[in-house]
Amino acid sequence: MYLLPRLFVLLFCLTLGIAPASGQGREQGITEPTPDMAQELLKVDGPVTLQRVAEGVPGWNVYQGGGVVGHIASSSEVAGSVGYSGQPLDVLVAVSPMAVITGARLVHHNEPVLTLGISDADIARYVSGFAGLDLTAPESISANAPDVISRATVSTGVIRDGILRTARTIAIARGLIRGAGIDRISFTPLDWVGLQQMNAVAETQVSMTAAAAALAGAKVPVQPGDGDFLRLYAAIIDTPTVGQNLLGQQQFTRIIGGLGAGQSALMVASAGLQSHRGTAWRRSGVFDRLTIVQGNTRWQPGADSYTMIESLVPEDAPAMKEVSLFALPPTIDPTVPFLVEVTATRPSSGADIEMIITLPYSLPETFHLAAPEAAPLWHDIWMKKRPEAVIVVVMLTCLTLILFAQGAITRRPKLWLRLRLGFLLTTFLVLGMGLNGQLSVVQVVAFLHALLTGFRWETFLADPVIFLLWGFTALGLLFWGRGVYCGWLCPFGALQELTNAAAQRLGIRQIAVPQGVHERLWVIKYTLFVVILAMSFYSMHDAILLAEVEPFKTAISMRFIRAWPFVLFVLLLLGAGLFIERFFCRYLCPLGAGLAIPAKLKIFDWLRRRPQCGRECRLCETKCTVGAIDPLGRINPNECVLCLRCQVIMADPTQCPVLKRRARTS
Fold first, then answer.
1. Do residues 644 and 416 lie in contact, with contact meaning Cβ atoms separated by under 8 Å?
2. CA–CA separation, 142 vs 368, rounded Å?
């Protein structure tokens, strides 16, 4: 699904001379706990010893006096915790034999807010707040688990999710609690005979003699005999004990990783004269011979749910004519018994003769997990932040209406100015200072890394405000270009424009940057973006440090409560912006540069131009506050912030020379 975006990013990186490292950041390895660390995490006195458990769910068993006093696991290794930086975020989690989280420690991260925005003491307090949670009482976890930190929603959300998922997984794997649904963790090496003995693989057989009797009257009769007309096998392969033994670890991981939410994987294999697949599905896209029946639900697989398997791994597996894998939809519950039906059809002198072969399947109780699974972290966050999400949706709706109705609005200069300044004020106060809705180049870099190393929606869904902004910005790039965010939704950009408007009201003279100098200064922000992106492939930590060229964290996220060098830097930028409107946006913003590149895909051109623009009239060029209009009257979409000022001028008969001339001659 993500092949094309990954290829695009790979080509982009190679064009820049960057060598993307596969799974970069994972070379850090898993932090192995020391005995002293284990004592601290498990809150035990006296010496302890640790034993590594590599099979199944990996981790460490901790012993004292010959008995187990607890278990420790890595969130990166068990839960695959990946932060907003796109790199592993590793937390060591300790669980007692009573299934209680006794401690947790953040041991490795590359998160920007944890690097420069939040103190180590803040993180230590947050992580220590998980101690004492009883994994046997899910309602207690929901009520008592520390909530995410508002200024670090995604990063601390990943920490929270990693701690809870790791603790729960290790507790299930060590037999401390029971899980939910299908056991997708435990693994026991078994051969084909072993899988059949535990009823993990179901089998049925129809002989040629039985088929000849059932299909009697067919134009081409089935010849009776002792051979197989159809020998049919079926198995739910979601659990590693079945799937990994049948397919091998690499193929099993690929199949399970490709399943959607609520889906499970069914293997259907067969030998004999009759095929369970047939060939008609290649034309129709539906496997009409095969039906899965569960209660009143009847489901026929389609080509989009099918994967062909060349062969099975067990050496003692019987010879198969066909092996198929189908992704079962959420409407089929793999823990509830169902039937696999194969229909054999033969033409006759009258109506076709059909024979339905059924194979009952029931997932062995060994692979059932009891308790319901907890809702994903992002779901809980969205439920808690519904008011914030509603506010953002309302703002985005209003902005959409403004942009679609720009023709009517720009014909009324006073209305345009009030809407413009009012929306920017709302962006700064509500979206920025209130909701912390400030995008960053770090998120662009993290997204590119995610496409290359393993995209996970959960990470990006963990902050509703940021997710909604990015979704609208991505769509806006196709409709209007980068200006839809930079000109309307960027809190720091809004602050610059508002302070400059106040400066002009106070009579501060504006500096007109010569066009030649102006265009050469653009190089700075594009260079910053490329350097930050390139550096991220070698050191995400250093890339995050360089991304501090963005004043967003100081001015918006931390509301100027920061060390004086950072505050001074922001004040210098705002000071320059009093004389050159949006000084930072024009020449230094790596986020704006990053958004300008995909903005080349813009498919609509909403800003009008006249043939006289740039030839007979250069008023819009001189009035453009960010220098996005060149001397020929062309609007550079890479620099335009979509303020609509040029559209106001073009529609105003008191300003536009073309309209003035028309009025005189009419």
1. yes
2. 24
Q: What pairing do the DSSP bridges indicate for beta strands 202-207 and 338-346?
A: unpaired
For residue 655, the model assigns a pLDDT of 84
**Phi and psi for 383 in degrees, rounded to 5?**
-65, -40
The single-letter DSSP state of residue 629 is B
Q: Where are the domains of the chain?
A: 19-178, 192-370, 378-664
How many CB atoms within 10 Å of residue 453? Answer: 20
Number of other CB atoms surrounding residue 637 within 10 Å: 19
Q: Phi and psi dihedrals of 34, rounded to 5?
A: -90, 165
pLDDT one-digit tens code per residue, 424-435: 999 999 999 998
Which H or E run contains 578?
helix 564-579
Q: Based on the number of CB atoms within 10 Å of its own CB, is 432 exposed (0-12), middle (13-18) or buried (19 or more)?
A: buried
Q: Is the pLDDT of residue 13 over 80?
A: no
Of the CA atoms within 13 Å of residue 661, those in its CB half-sphere come to 7
List beta partners, residue 344.
Answer: 355
Rounded to whole angstroms, the Cα distance separating 252 from 236 reads 12
Confidence label for 16 from pLDDT (cuts 50, 70 and 90): very low
Distance separating alpha carbons of residues 603 and 319, to the nearest angstrom:
55
Contact 484, 473 (CB under 8 A): yes
Which amino acid is located at 594 in the chain? G
User: Quick one: pLDDT band at residue 3, thresholds 50, 70, 90?
Assistant: very low
241-273 b/e (C-beta count within 10 Å ≥ 16 → b) = bbbbbbbeeebbeebbeeeeeebbbbbbbbbbb
Q: How far is CA 426 from CA 408, 423, 473, 479, 488, in A?
A: 22, 5, 17, 23, 10
Distance of CA 434 to the CA centre of its chain: 25
What pLDDT score was predicted for residue 430?
94
Exposed / middle / buried, residue 149 (Cβ in 10 Å: 0-12, 13-18, 19+): buried
CA-CA distance, 424 to 430, in Å (whole number)? Answer: 10
pLDDT in tens, 602-653: 777 778 888 888 787 888 888 888 888 888 888 888 888 889 888 888 888 8
Length of the chain: 666
Separation between Cα atoms, residue 4 and residue 1, nearest integer Å:
8
Q: Which amino acid is at 554?
A: T
Question: What is the overall mean pLDDT for the chain?
Answer: 83
* Nearest alpha carbon to residue 329 among 301, 363, 310, 356: 301
Whether 382 has a pLDDT exceeding 80, the answer reads yes
Residue 51 and residue 60 in contact, taking contact as beta carbons nearer than 8 Å: yes
- Does the pLDDT of residue 277 top 60, yes or no? yes
| pLDDT greater than 90 at residue 247 | yes
Distance of CA 596 to the CA centre of its chain: 22
Residue 1 has pLDDT above 60, yes or no: no
- Residue 205 or residue 563, greater confidence: 205
Weakest mean pLDDT among 106-120, 527-541, 584-598: 106-120
Cβ(322)–Cβ(277) under 8 Å? yes
CB neighbours (10 Å) of residue 393? 13
Q: Which two tokens stand for residue 39?
A: 């004592």
Q: How far is residue 394 from each of residues 251, 398, 416, 617, measured CA to CA in Å?
A: 46, 6, 19, 39
